[in-house]
Each structure stands twice: as C-alpha cells, then as structure tokens.
Amino acid sequence: MGEAEFDDILDDWFIETLKTYTDLHVYQLEHPTQVIEWTSGRTVCVAGYSSAKNEILELHLPLKLFAEENKGLCAERDFKVVHGGFTDGPVRCLTHVPGTRCVVTNDGLSSNLQVWDLGGDDSDVIRRTGSVEGRSVSEGGSRIAARLSSQVLHGAQSSDIQLTHLTSGQTLYKLETDSADPLSSLQFVSDSVFLAGCCNGNVYVADTRTSAAPQLAPPSSTGESVLWWTDASAGPDPSSCRVVRLASSGQATVSDLRNLGGAVSRAQLDVQTRRCSLGGVRVSWAPALDDCIAVSGLSGTVQIYNTSVWRAELQEARPLFEHRGHVVSSQQSDDGVPVFVTSHAWHPERQRTLLSAASDGSVHVWDWVDQSAAAGPELGTT
How many domains in the chain? Predict the structure, then answer.
C-alpha cells in the first residue's frame, strides 16, 4: 500500500469515528502487551511479553473520558503512567487481587506465579514481593483467577488447579481429576464456584468448599476447531450465569451454567481466522451490557456481538460493532507482519467502553455508539 493510499484510508476512518465513537483515545507503549487488567474504575495494569526485560505499568485513563459535561474543555486527554516497574521475563497472564494493591503474573514459560505490589500514594514503583510454585512443570503457562481475602486460583492444566492463600502460602484447595487438559481460562462465578475452560473445549465446574469431583462438560460440537476459549457472564446469582465457548474456526456457542452440555444458541462469527495461539485470543462478556460479547485475536479488529439474536441452530452472525482502529492506523509491523489485536477488556461499569491493545504497542480506549436501534434488531445477524 502506498503512503498516499494509506493516508486516504486513515482520513476516511477518522471521519467515520466522528459518528461511530463517543470517545476514542490512543496511547503508544514502548513494547506491546498481551494483558489489560483493571485495578480500579480508572486505572489499568499492562506489561510487556518480549523475552527480555519488560515494563509493568499502571496507567490512568484520560480524564476527558470521565468528564460528564464540556468534554472539549478538559485538558487531560492522554493516558498517564502512575506506577511502574520492570520484570525479568515476559508477562503472559496478569490478574489483580480484588481489594488490594497486588497483582499476580505468569510468564507463560512455567506454572509458577510472580506476586507484585503496585505501590501507593507514597511510591510510584511496582515491586515484586513474592512467588508461588505451581503443581506442574507445564511449559504452557498458568491461568489465574483471584478473589477477596488474597486467595488465588491457578493452574496450567485441569489436573493441577489449586487455590493458594498469598499471605501464608497455604494451599487451600486442589482440583482432583485424571485429565490433564491445558487450560485457556480460569474464572470464579461465585465466592467458591469456579469454571475452568480448556483449550480442547472441555469445561470443568467445581466448588472449592468440597472435594467432590468437578462437573465436566465437553463442547457440543467439535468441527474442525483446534483451540477453544471460554468466558462466563458475571452476576449475583451463578444459576443465571451463561458461558460462551469460542472455537478457532470462528464458531461460538452459548450455554447455561446449569446445562453446559447443551447449547442455548450458536453462531458462526464473521471473522477472518488466522493462525492463532492459545494466549492470543480473547472472548469476554460485557459486564454492564446485557447479551454482548467482545472477540479479539482472530484478526486485527475487536468485534462486538449481540448474542440475544442468536438461535439454537447454527447461523452466521455479523458484529454489532467492529473496532478497526489498530489495523487502520498501522499498515504493518516492522517485520512485515500485519498488526493484530493482542488483548481487550471491557470497562467494569461503563456499558460500551473497552480497552484494546495491538502488536504494534498501541493501546486504545474507546466508547462505541450502538446504531442498531435505528436499523432494527436484525442488524446483528444475517
């Protein structure tokens, strides 16, 4: 693509954003990140994943994003680094421990965890304060979920999941299963019940209060998929929780937590699937917007889908919204490979605000406009 043609595309997209975004802010990291983790309603933690030394940063989102009135008069329009430090290796997984100034990371090279203090008002330094050994020597890296009282659930495979108390180092729970399926996700759906999604599509549901065998639910259909990713919707009642499983073929299945073997709805997503990795794809339910999921890592965009219009029979689905900012604003990376999205995260409270990061080091925070009301409910499907 010539420079003039690229400039035209960028100009056209900029004009388009005036109608399709309420807010759009861009930040450039020195090195790309695969992790975006909220540490408060206005701050996020990011970290590099290169093999050498990496930065771990806590960023404050632009103040203009939170201005209720007269946004144009707000001078603070950029991200701000509030705390920072360095890691000796890559960061492939990062989880904030609720109610604390602590995050737990994994390097993707072993099942061990690293524990970090994010600092406070008296210090802007992020310091490593400890570590936790995993139960296996898996080279796939651990998945992490945390809850109040500094308890962290972690594991690389379904057979080595354990609950550890960070302060004492005590192991509080171990999942007992003979299957050693590599994990793609770990997630609490209540104070004690958790969901473990495996890369082969299997989903385990277990309760840390009991030693009973976990509930196992294989995918309703396998097709030609090689990898699967899973996410569960948040809510006060686990019985109302829904689970979405995304296959590398682009097929998505929504199930009820009480009947994971069945499919409430299914859809073939409108994605240009590429060769994807286990840690490079994200699917996530919107915490404050009913029935919507976001998908990234299968292309250079972040797509929003409305699952309420999906049916039990497989159908093709178009995205409700597609953030193309990363791929539009960068022709390709330095090594000639097209830019791809490395991670995304919904804002915990704002309905249509997301953050996304890409392989060129760009980080975007954007609030998209839902234009489906004028077009009717069929916009999300074909």
Answer: 1
